[in-house]
Design a protein that fits this description.
about 190 residues; mainly alpha; Arc Repressor Mutant, subunit A; 2 domains; about 0% strand
Amino acid sequence: MLEKNRKLQIIEAAIKRFNKHGLAKTTLDEVARDLRIGKATIYHYFDSKDELYFATLNYRIDQYIEDIRNILANNERPYEERLMEYFEYKTKFDETFNLIYILMVEVLSGGELENEIVIVKNLLSKEKELIDNFAKENKLNKSDNKYLPEFLVIQSWGFLFGQKLKKISNTETFESTKEISQKVLKTILS
């Protein structure tokens, strides 16, 4: 148990460093200093800074997926409200899960980032599986909308970037992204 706790402490300290300084400017010496441990202790758990970085990304993805699972599992609320909460949760994704957000932007910009692409695919796959299970539990997966889970996952990411574009446009002529999403979801799910 102590081994697992130490590894988790290293990951959490690294998350803070990577969030603040990015991968390139973070050193294992700094992470070790933050924890008041020797750098050799980090190497006991991780072979390199890159391995630690990828471990932090996967850890944050697991946290994100758990958050989404909790939102969708709240059976005290109608499924439409849970889906809207899922969409709305994405609007603060860049603040809450900054490392993953930066990763998504880098991957979307077209860089040749093999390991990063694998991580993003893993995230999208886990998210789609959650939405697929949610759709089945709520009998939303009719034969004519078997692509609904993938559509909702992709649209939820669009919701995040749509909010960013709305802030940039700084205009009142656009309807709120929340209102648009509610109307679209209502139409799709009817």
